[in-house]
Amino acid sequence: CVCVFVFFLMIRRPPGSTLFPYTTLFRSAIDGASGDILWEFWDGGMTDARSQGIYNFYATQWIEDQNADGYKDLLVANGGDSKVMPGVKKRPHGNLMVLSGKDGKELARAPVPENREVYYAPHVHFNDGKKKAKIIFATGGEDIDGKLDRKSVV
User: Fold this and answer.
1) pTM, to two decimals
2) Which of 53, 50, 65 is nearest to 112 (CA)?
């Protein structure tokens, strides 16, 4: 059995820093046995990521193979622009994304309902044993309301 870890890093900026308070880097899938990097999602800088609508990533969930490459894929919630200060109501919407488990390529991206932020890790649910999985996720943020929602897997 080969374990794979998807690597997230959140850095708290020091008090008084003129930079935004947190930086979240979603970089790599790492082979748990060897420590080798299997793939990297984003090799550009944070400014470039923001311009492409890539913000913070939250805990991933393995889902069934979506692109028939023989590998399970990753469901992630992406959102929360860390440059937007508390109290600001206009914020970029969050997305649910599917990334290839084989190479980290983006397979699908869908905005969350009502164009809200998303900070909550999505959960995969097999409603009472049915074979069709559902995604349960929550929207909203520190200054914007949201809700708990459920959608079919892509």
Assistant:
1) 0.77
2) 53
Other CB atoms within 10 Å distance of the CB of residue 70: 8
Each of the 154 residues of the chain gets a pLDDT tens digit; together they read 445 555 544 444 445 544 444 444 456 777 777 777 778 777 666 667 778 888 777 778 888 899 999 998 888 888 877 778 888 888 888 889 999 988 889 999 988 888 888 888 888 887 766 677 788 888 887 778 888 888 876 5
Contacts of 5 (CB under 8 A, 6+ apart): 29, 30, 32
Q: In which element (H, E) is residue 10 found?
A: strand 4-12
